[in-house]
Amino acid sequence: MVSVLNLMQGGFPSRASFHDLYEMYKRYMPQNLLRLDPRLFCKALFHALGLSDQDYRFGVTKVFFRSGKFYEFDQMMKSDPENLRVLIKKVHRWLICARWKKAQWGTLMVLKLKNKILYRRRALLKMQSTIRMFLAVRRHRPRYRALRQVQTLYSEIVKMEDVAKQMKDDKVSKQVKSIRTSLDDLIRGIKTTVMKRQQMDKLYIDMANKVTKQLKELMSKKKAKEAEQIRLKKLQEEMEREKKKREEEERKRKAEEEEREKKKKEEAEAKKKKEEIEKRRKEEEAMNLKALREERKKLEEEKKKIFEEKKLLEDLRKKQEQERLDFEMAQRLSQESNSQVTVTEEVAQVREEVATAIPARTPLVQRSDKTYDLSKWKYAELRDTINTCNDVDLLSACREEFHRRLKVYQKWKSKNKKNTAEPEPTTARAPEAIQNASPPPPLPQKKKPGDKMAQRYFRVPFMRPSDKSGDPTLRKKGMWYAHFDGEFIARQMELHPDKVPVLLVAGKDDLQMCELSLLETGLTNKKNAEILEKEFEYEWDKHGGTNYLLIAINNKQARQTYATNKLQGK
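^ that's the sequence the OP posted. Answer follows.
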């Protein structure tokens, strides 16, 4: 009743039952439409007439119309027969379309039902498999959980085996092996025997306690063994340190003994070399003195001989003069007496003696004939020949000519020094004691081609000229070092107490070096002037002489000497 009232309130006041409408209009319908159900008949009829769905509503047994719509419907149904036939065709068409749609929806519903059946079947299988899985999990989960827990004990077993291997104890190895066997048996029992979860947990706890206890015992034994090994290792290291200490002390003692022996040998060698140098100096001094005496003796003999020759010559000249006077007197007498003067054999003999009695004067010191004439050579030619020549005679002649020119240059320079306004040089070529007190050189001795150049080293203290006139307490002494390669100087060094050392090498600094030869300096006769090679080389290296010489060699400024050959040989 409430639904009817709601329809009437919604604007559907007119109503009629399906059966009444069917009975009212069936006489207008053809025979094929009269077989329809009243409800379907009404629905088809309304759609054929073109009524809107908003104009009517179907109930269970009745149809409801809006106000005035039932009258329109009734007028359409009672219209002329031609319209009625058209209406019947429309009804018939709607019925066919409705049945076709129903068939389509029926087919769709069948397919949907099929899919639903298949879905339910799959869901049923899923539920069955899930239930089976749940049942299997509930049955086997305690077992594989227990297996997983038990298998974690294998890591502890591996640690125990490693400890047993390190300890190298057969008893411990057997215990570890038995524990592994028990663990394998437990895993096998869990896999093959049906057990409860509490029972499996108890077996696992017992096995874990057993493994943990055994591992602790092994670790304690291992620590005790390691502590013992550490103690033994410390003892061994201590013994090794003591042994090394004794060996080091023994080595130091032997090294000290060797150092003392070496020092003694060096002192003995140095003493021996000094004695040899002193002996050689004395021998050279004696030889020079002997040569000087012989030279003086020869000079005396030559002077005596010349005096006798002069006396004899004077007598012969007097005799010749007397003969000449007598001959002239005889000629004048013969002219007065118209006679001829003849030269007697005695007079001819006197003239011949006078002519042959005047010997050629010889110098006091005779020099050997020069093999090479180097007076016209240039300085560069002399330097290149000294650096590259292999001929000993030519090399000696070039060196003598070179140093001769240096002497002439230095003599000319000192002679004209007073006439120039240039200041005096701060460094001298050689100490005054060497330049002023140089003895006259003995006769040069010609060396054989196979002889090597003697290497001599000297050290002479000196004082600068500017310090001589001042306070004696403020005078500062320096050291003059020289290295003679044969007769001529090769390296020179001056050490001043308050100045930079002066380093000079042959070839680069010839004009600043000593131009005198070794014999002319008189250093061989000077006491305590000659030193050892290592003493000179120590001072030379200490003050940068090696680098200075090496730079001169690289710049091709140094002359070839013993020092350059030694440095290039390194």
